[in-house]
Amino acid sequence: MSIRPPEGGPPGPAGEHGPYGGRAEHGGRAGYGTPTSYGGPASYGGPSPRAARAIAALVVVVPAHDEEVLLPHALAALRRAARHPALPVRVRVVVVADACADGTAALARAAGAHVVRIDARNPGRARAAGVAAALGLCAGPPERVWLSSTDADSVVPANWLAKQWRWGARGWDAVVGTVRPLGGDPALAGLLHREAVRYREAGGARHPHVHGANLGVRADAYLGVGGFPPLATGEDRALVHALEAGGHRVLRTRRWPVATSARLHPRASGGYGARLARLARLTGVEGVEGTEEVCGTEPV
To answer: What was the pLDDT predicted at 35?
Structure first.
């Protein structure tokens, strides 16, 4: 096992993983802002010029299915993250409006995002379509493009993109982060607390979680393993498995978790919300009938 300095230093040999950061804090509601157009980066004085040249472009892909309520908060958080003073590159945001019958696409376009419309109702196809559009927006070679992934019901930390850029510049091929619950019914407080403890302790230092809401990958590594497969659930886990199986340097970190909605009526089956819904039913929380079952046993 390689040892790395705090905040994700250079990786060791391919396939090795260093120790990981502090535990994610759970609970509470993140603040929201009003989405506005994305601008260029703020002034920068961080890593060396050589590191800055390693990643020349950064694109965030956000799949969305009828997310006009929560998407503005996600985009506002991405705008804040894109203007972090330690981020020296321009950030583009691609929103994939998948089978949307509401104002998702219009809201994303008004916020300055590039919008892709598809009618697949499939997270794997949506993420893949978003990445394809993202690569079309970037003129540089894939090895200098970093692809970040989050969800339309999620709020990223202000330094999330800066940290992903830094890890990529230090030689990591992919970064696999964690999530924490955002909001939710007060009746779920006990459930969320128990899940937070279980979530933090799962896997020890090398956490086993994979979330499309908190994921980053260098474009050449992504293309080398075939990208997101067209799966209705588990497309994020399949991508990370392919990266690790292919010997790519994958950093799993508990630092800087992304806040993800604790709603009990999720848009996708087999994900974070679906697991919470199932647990709520099993523990007798009212008002969760008709929610989707969880597919698989991936800890969330």
So the answer is: 34
